[in-house]
């Protein structure tokens, strides 16, 4: 028997503009299921609806039509107070620009979601220490964001996103501000968390290299899901398949193939 999907979206639409003359479908008739333990990438050209889709899944925006269930709960029927509680307990977010609080240490930034839940200090301490160890940032626990590297900031953000053990980790271009070394390191960590801890990850990305770490890519065009691609072989083969599909959709491919990432594959082959 299959477990409850972590995401079940049925006939979802998001319309911007109130009058019929200026109505615009940012998402149109989107249906999509994600099983627990999957690592899925959302790709598409600029303006295709990726962020809108992530925002409605993450409860930050309301859909116009359709339903979204996360871990078996229909979030489209929830009131705003219930939604913020649900978001705090079930979802974790990693953004391109880290969104850490500058006046809190690494430890305090990670502990923030737990202190908002009024968790006892001793329990909080053990959870924060566990996730810092997992992400390799225990030694910088007392440093402030301005004192650490971009890669360490993103690891801190990932630790904060995971400390409350959410049902779903959402990423919006999580490697977008990182150099190759730090991007690879974060992607390897995400892969490990997905494979070893079965954390379900949904990530929007422009670049095919980051996407090649996923098990499946969902392509979006003009607000509609147009294709899915499953990884069956090596990551390098998957990367090329992703670029081929993006090539079919035009504009997105130009920004998806990165010379730096191409170089990294060349290095791996040596
Ligand atoms: N608040 C809004 N009001 C009106 N139109 C909007 C609004 N937000 C987004 N849109 C439009 O909806 C479409 C989808 O936007 P969205 O930000 O989801 O695209 P995206 O694929 O994430 O793009 P990018 O890769 O450039 O971030 C775009 O045409 C955008 O202009």
TrEMBL record:
Keywords: ATP-binding, Nucleotide-binding, Transport. Pfam families: ABC_tran. Coiled coil: none annotated. GO terms for cellular component: membrane protein complex; plasma membrane. One of its GO terms (molecular function) is ATP binding. Residues 7-247 form the ABC transporter domain. The keyword Cell cycle does not apply. This is Putative ABC transport system ATP-binding protein.
